[in-house]
Amino acid sequence: MSNDVRLGIIGLGAQGGMYANLLEENRIEGMTLGAICSRSPEKKKRADELGVPFFTDYREMITSGEVDAVVTTVPHYLHPEMGIYALQNEVHALVEKPVGLYTKQARELISIAETTPGLKFGVFFNQRTNQLYKDIKEIMDSGELGKLRHTSWLITNWWRPQGYYDQSDWRATWGGEGGGVLVSQAPHQLDLWQWMCGVPRSVFAKAQYGFRRDIVVEDEVIALVSFDDGATGTFITATHDMVGTDRLEILLDRGKIVVEDSQKVTITRLKEDEQVLSRDMDMEAVKKLFTGQMDIDLYMTTETTEYESQWGAQHAEVLRNFAAAINGEEELLAPGADGIHAVRLANSIHLSSWTGKEIDLTDFDEKTYLEELNKRIREEGKFEERS
């Protein structure tokens, strides 16, 4: 018998359509298309072309017996309720990012998953499949460059014109989308940053709401975070920079990692811990270093690696890994429980910018965040408040 996992796709927009195409082309080892669900009846034509059952209610698809697992490609607020329903009905769940729009919502899904250990629960962080970031994580985990000192990510190549926001009445709203760049464009970077460098302990942030776009949510963010052992970090993102920059720096005791455009990585390794070099280098050597007379190879080595673009293949790899995890062949690259870290950091950035205070992520005030979110939803006057 085939061990292929029958996947049900909930939502057949751009993302869901791409997953259906990947399965149609047999590009996902260990997985086949089981069914499609969409609230738009006209999408039934595509299901008929693919030869799979079509549903307009995700609950009916989940309980139909036609699918072993589902992936949610729907508006952000719906991810947790669909994931919960799937797990409660013995169906594996892969939810798109973010795993929830606020931590209370995310925790509810994660708590249900903990009661169903026989089922797989993943989050679609496709950037974790990028070999570039996997290599950096391996270096960070190995400790070969020592402890983290500072990290910064300038990721402003999310340019979105006004027409992008005007496509739908739910887009770039508090009640419909739950935020701006932090929940729609940057969750992958928020996840990768914490995956590689560790989860921050606190954050102080400044965010601009409708700064250069006619929207109510954030289109520019500057956040300062603190990690354990005194390490710090900055995260800067925006949707109004048409030129855009993608640059990640990670400074450690014995070197530095610099990533440009998520493709080029430069790693500098110090021959000794920087503090040892600082202590032992005499001022004559310092003078030669500053004036360019020093043989820099005495103190450090530098290597640069260019990675090929992984666009498209990343999504296929997440689905393949999910199928392999269901069949007991691999561990999930992005377990669903990991998804709460990016949600908590985004929520904390919002809350810090709203209150003007530094926010403790180790004791995050979910109640205050939800009160502030609902206050903004009421002001919009178009959506129901959240609980």
Automatic annotation (TrEMBL):
Molecular-function annotations in GO: nucleotide binding
Residue stretches making up the GFO/IDH/MocA-like oxidoreductase domain: 133-257
Gene3D superfamilies: Dihydrodipicolinate Reductase, domain 2, NAD(P)-binding Rossmann-like Domain
Pfam families: GFO_IDH_MocA, GFO_IDH_MocA_C3
InterPro entries hit by this protein: Gfo/Idh/MocA-like_OxRdtase_N (IPR000683), Gfo/Idh/MocA_Oxidoreductase (IPR052515), GFO_IDH_MocA-like_dom (IPR055170), NAD(P)-bd_dom_sf (IPR036291)
PANTHER family xref list: D-GLUCOSIDE 3-DEHYDROGENASE, UDP-N-ACETYL-2-AMINO-2-DEOXY-D-GLUCURONATE OXIDASE
Protein name: Dehydrogenase
Native species: Corynebacterium doosanense CAU 212 = DSM 45436
